[in-house]
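WARN no homologs supplied; continuing
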Amino acid sequence: MAPRPAKPPRKKGVSIYRPFIFGSFAKLIDPASRPSNINADHTHQWTIYVRPCPTHPDLSYFIKKISFKLHETYTNSLRTVEAPPFEVTETGWGEFEVQIKLYFVPEANEKPQTIWHHLKLHPYGEKAEEQREKKEPVVSECYEEVVFNEPVEAFYDLLTSSGGPVGRGKGSKGSKQASMSGKKAGQEERVAELPFNGTYSQKEEGKELDRLGQAIKTVELMVREERRKLEEREKTLADLKSEEGLLTKAK
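OK structure emitted
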């Protein structure tokens, strides 16, 4: 029996992460310019994609290909893209979950990683009605990081020669394979929903925190007001019972 090939050496105690953005862009099909080959029931044109972050403009040096699993009603529902831009454009009328699978270059010696994205065709949130009236495109994006825990040395050299952050430390205990940064046992994958313009910033995060803080204060005021009303009702009820007791004694 031939001996098993030796496993490639790994960089002990090192974790490297690479950020990316995945999401979708959808817009209503204009009846005036509607192509004749589009299904009559389809109302939107959309694009599902995986894109680099502005600070790390290239994904192709560590991603070999990306597959997008569309709804089974689409012809050739499994679409594989082997070069940037990693995206698929289609038309349709309904929203659904898209399975996105990342395949890494051979040097990585890593298993593919899977993420999910809900294709959104309709606006949502505080400005949904305004967007609907203006027929604005619907953008739904998420920020994610893939973490390579103790990568093989050849892949480590590839990643570091292309620049980007290196995080030292053991990473996930006992893990020697790629993983999504926020994925833990029994938990959802960590993603950060981005604003409609598709640009994540500390300013937007600060605004969201301010809105949450204001909402908490509003709820606290409502709770105090309801508690005050309850105390008044309890006092009124106690007074009525007391008066009823006095009337009973008087009889």
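The radius of gyration is 27 Å.
OK
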